[in-house]
Amino acid sequence: MTEGWPVADLDPVRRLRVLAASLRFPVYLSEAVLPAPVDAVWAVASDLEHELPRSLPTVRSARITRRDGDRLELLAVGTLGQRARFDVVLRPGWCLMRSRFVLGAMAAVPDPAGGTRFAALGGFRLPGVRLARPLARPLLTLAGDRAMRTFAGHPGLTR
To answer: Which one, 33, 70, 79, 129, has the greatest CB density within 10 A?
Structure first.
């Protein structure tokens, strides 16, 4: 063998689409082109402690409890008082958050037509949830679209 393996470079939004398509549990995937530069979008999105409670109505608070380079631990408290510890990978243009029962991710890249293509993914990693996929996916899609509209309406992202 004289040739190496083929390489497929995927930008963060494409990587998020592949992740969404490969998961065995229902998820939402929302995308939007925002009229702000990618640095501005990512500055808002990566401020997890402030933006998660603002964009997700089920999150009352989020606090980073540990940081080691691009690896974080985040404690989220829901509106009903439930708590979840998330392992987070946070890099420029890419965020993956995983708790015992929830998966969330965000990605941002410059859009060729101008502005920033931003995508977000969310889903529940619950036993048996695959069986409820026909019911769960529409509900998750509604929640994801609402979160995307809230995020896109952030004062720092509108022109």
So the answer is: 129
